[in-house]
Amino acid sequence: MADIKRTWYTIWTFARISTKRFFRDRTALFFGLAFPLVFLFIFGGLNSGGGDVSFNVAIINNSESEFAKQFVKEAETGGVLKVDNDITTLDAAKEKMSRSELDATIELPADFGTIKGDSTYPSGEVQVLYTQNNQQSAAALTSILDAQMKAINGQFVTSVTPFTVQGQEINERSLSAFDYTFAGLLGFAIMGMGIFGPINVFPELKKMGILRRLSTTPIKVWQYFTSTMISQAVTGIVGIALMFIVAITVFHLEVVGNWFELGVLIIVSMIMILGIGLALGGWAKNERQVAPLANIIVFPMMFLAGTFFPRFLMPDWLQNVSAFIPLTPVIDGIRLIATEGKHLIDILPQVGLIGLWLIVIYFIAFRVFRWE
Amino acid sequence: MIEVKNLKKRYGDKQAVDGISFTVKKGEIFGILGPNGAGKTTTLEMMETLRSIDSGTVLIDGIDVKKHPQKIKYIIGVQPQTPAFQDKTRLTEVIELFAAAYGEKVDPMAFLRDVDLEEKAKNYVEDLSGGQKQRLSITTALVHGPKVFFLDEPTTGLDPQARRHLWELIGKVRDKGISVIMTTHYMDEAEVLCDRIAVMDNGKIVAIDTPQNLIKQLLERGFKKKQHVQQANLEDVFIDLTGKELREGA
Q1: Domains of chain A, with CATH numbers?
Q2: Could you report the per-residue pLDDT of A37-89, keeping only the tens digit for each?
C-alpha cells in the first residue's frame, strides 16, 4: 500500500511541476494556447456570414420609369442582393464578372416598367447576364427574381395557381460550416499540443543528458509517461476551453451535447494523440532524426482527418481509408457530441477506434523509448 | 562497500574495459584517473546501471548490479559530467523532483543549505552559474541518502575558487560515511581529495594505491625532477605510468 502511494507521489510531483513549467514558458504558452486561437479566428472568420445566401451583382438600369427606380431600390435594400454601385456600364460589369468578383449582372431595358400599347399595367423583361463559371449562382438568382416577378404580376393580373410549391424548414438546427471547422480546429489543436510538444522537448532533454540522469533514479518509464499525460491533459484542457469560449462568444457556436461526455472524449483523445508524440520523441536520438518522420505522420493525418475541410468532400475510397487514421474518430466524435448532441454510447465506432489506437500507440511508444 | 571483479566491456573491436578489479571502502574517496579513452567513464557507467556489463561482477553493499539494477538505483547517487536541468524550474522544485523520483518527500531548503544555495531557492535553474549548477547537481544526487556517490569529472571547466568549494563539499559527503567514486583529469585534485586512486590505461588498471604511496614508489625507482632535487608530484606519476603521447579527443 505504501509502495503504491510512493509510486503515485512520484507521478503526481512530476506532473505538477511540469504543468507549472508550461505556464511559465512563453513559447509553450504561445504554441499551446494562442496559436490554435489564431487559427480559430482565421477559419472562423472565413466561415461566418456563410449563413445567408447573397449574390454579388451589378444593376444596370436603362429605364427612366418609376417602376424601374422602385425595383432597383428594393433590390439594394432587400438583403438577398449585394449591389455593386460603382458599376454603371455593361463593359465594366463584364470585366468584373470574368474575374468572378460578380455573380451576375441585372440589366433593365429602356422600356422596363413602362406601360406599352393598350395595356393598363407596366411590363418589362429583367435580363440576368452571367458568365460560364457563374451558372449556378445565376440560375439561383434567376429563379429568385422570377418568383418576385410572379408576386408582382399577381398584383396587376389576378390569376389562378392550382399547383404551388411551399418550402418549409423542418430541422430546428443543422450543421453549419463552422461546426465542421470548429471540430477540425480542435483536432488540430489536440494534434499540435500532443505531437509537437514531445518531439521538440524529448530530443532536447536527451541532448542535455537530463533523461539519462533521470534513468539513474528508480523512476520507471510508465511513471514518466503518466506524469506527462496528466500535465498534458491539464494544459490541453485549458487550451481547449479557451477555444470553446471564443467559439461560443464570438462565433455563436451552440454546444448541444453533454459537456461531461465531451470532456471525457477530448481528454482520452489528447492522451491517445500524445502517445504519437511520446513514441516519436522517445524513440529519436536527436531533432534531425525526428523531424522527417513527424512530418510524414502529421501532415497526411492533418489533411485526411478533416482538420481543415470536411471529409465528406473527399472521394469515397479516400473517405474509407481516412476513416481509420487516429485523428478522424477524434474530430468526428467531438462534432457528433458537441454539435449533434450524441452520447458516447451512440458513437461507439469512434470511441472504439480511439481506444484501439490508444493501445497500439502506447504499445509502440513503450517499446521504442530510450533514455538517451 | 564496493567490490569490482574482472569487469569487462567491449565496443565493436575495442575492449573498452579489460578485466579490472578493485574495492572501495565505506567513507573513502576513490579516484579513477587516466587519459581520454582509457575506460574511466565506461567503468563508472557500468557501476551506475547506465551500461550493460559484458562480464565480471560489481557488488555494491552486497547487491549485484547486473542482477538487481533497480535495487542499486536506490543506494547510489550520480553526478553527470555536465549537469543540466529543465528550464523554468525553481531550485526547490528540482530537489522535489529528484526526491520524488525515489518516491520520497523532502525539505528542499535543507538540501539547498548544504550546498550554500538557499538564497537562490526561488530562482530558475537557468540563472545559475556553472559552479552553482554543479553544487545543485551534487545535492540532488544525495536527496535519497545514497551509500555510494559517483562523480564524473566534477570540476572540469570550473574556476579555481569554484573547484576548491566543490572539493570541500565532496569532502563533507565522505565525512557522512558515503563512499565517493570520482574520475578526474586534474592531478592536484586527485592528490588533495582522493584517499586512494586507480590509474587506468587502455581499459586496464595500471596502478592502485594512495597518492602518497604512488609518489613514494616513483621516487624509490630513482625518479628525479629536473629543476628540483627530491621532489615530484602526482602529475609525474601519472605521466610516468601512462606515457606522454597525446590521446585521441584530448
Answers
A1: 2-48+176-368 (no CATH), 55-156 (3.40.1710.10)
A2: 888 888 877 765 544 557 788 888 888 888 888 888 877 777 677 888 788 78
Show the beta-strand stretches assigned E in B61-173: 63-64, 76-79, 148-152
Helix (H) or strand (E) holding B226: none
Q: Are strands B76-79 and B196-201 parallel, antiparallel or unpaired?
A: unpaired
Rounded distance between C-alpha atoms, residue B8 and residue B15, angstroms: 8
Is residue B100 within 8 angstroms of chain A, CB to CB? yes
Q: How far is A228 from chain B (nearest CA, A)?
A: 13
Q: Per-domain residue ranges for chain B?
A: 2-242
Residue B34 corresponds to which cell in the numbers above? 587516466
Report the side by side order of strands in the sheet with B55-60.
Answer: B14-24, B2-11, B55-60, B63-64
> Using CA of residue B158, residue B164, residue B169, residue B175, what is the dihedral sign?
positive
Residue recorded with cell 597525446: B246
Q: Which residue has the cell 563533507?
A: B172
Chain A residues touching residue B50 (CB < 8 angstroms): 212, 215-216
Task: Return the SS3 of A337.
Answer: helix
Q: Of 3.40.50.1100, 3.40.50.2020, 2.30.29.170, 3.40.50.300, which CATH number belongs to B2-242?
A: 3.40.50.300
A205 Cα to chain B: minimum distance (Å): 8
Nearest CA in chain B to A10: B100
pLDDT tens digits for range B80-115: 888 899 999 999 999 999 999 999 999 999 999 989
Q: How many CB atoms lie within 10 A of CB B164?
A: 14
Residue of B nearest to A372 (CA): B50
Strand-strand pairing, B29-33 and B14-24: unpaired
* B148: β partners: B76, B179
